[in-house]
Fold:
Amino acid sequence: NIADVQSVISSAVGGDNIGEVVDGLQRFPINMRYPREIRDSLEKLRVLPIITERGQRLVLSDVADIRITDGPPMLRSENARLSGWVYVDIRGRDLRSAVQDMQKAVAEKVVLPAGYSVSWSGQFEFLERATAKLKVVVPFTLLIIFVLLYLTFSSFGEAILIMATLPFALIGGIWLLYLLGYNLSVAGAVGFIALAGVSAEFGVIMLLYLKHAWDERITQGKNSTEDLLDAIREGAVLRVRPKAMTVAVILAGLFPIMWGTGTGSEVMQRIAAPMVGGMITAPLLSMFVVPAAYLLMRRRQRKQGGEHP
Structure:
């Protein structure tokens, strides 16, 4: 059988340790194998004698085809299995869709023999792990934001108003990613998470100013629709200059990242790009949409008789 043939080859060519020499505290193995002139010759290896259990005498060429071929310079293993790697560089498209197309093509056109398997690793594997974590982190973060908003305003309607504006505030970041030719990645997702936090802050501050202006009108006994409009105008105007300063400071910190070319700049640019684009839509949303939504909310409460100081 094959094991017997391999045993003969390993002992004759590779050698077997049959004992050891003791020299004081040192031990030296005694290795026995064929001389080098036989091991280095294909013709002599082909006539290497093999004695079967029945006493039949064969030579190695009777049971094996002996030749010299070029093999891999290195053997790699993964999970105790031999593995081969195919490296693919992606250009001009996002990693996830490219790998999905390759997986589909391999599944349709490649027939794997028994014992073979294919796995997709590298940056795609890291992307899948990060995506799985983001599926847990993002909803949990949004839930925390909603709870904090409710604790701040003590109103589900106002908390939902701020949360509802977040997707629209992210539009600027999406457009800038598109204009720069960036594909959505984990770095981009981190940038959108940061943008969502800043957008929520814009909405909260705007809503607080609107509520403060309206509460002053209520205290003065002014409860008409015109008073409501005046309060919204006053609260919104008071936030224009602070919001402009906030946006200017954020952009001043992010523009050097967008223009940088050093090590790690590609990752940092994809984090900063959503923030830069969002600094256009998020302030406009908080200055125009939030006051209008607050007006509609207060009008509805007045019609239902639910207005309170």
Notes: The first helix runs from residue 2 to 14. The chain is about 65% helix and 10% strand. Strands lie at 16-23, 26-32, 49-51, 57-59, 76-78, 81-83.
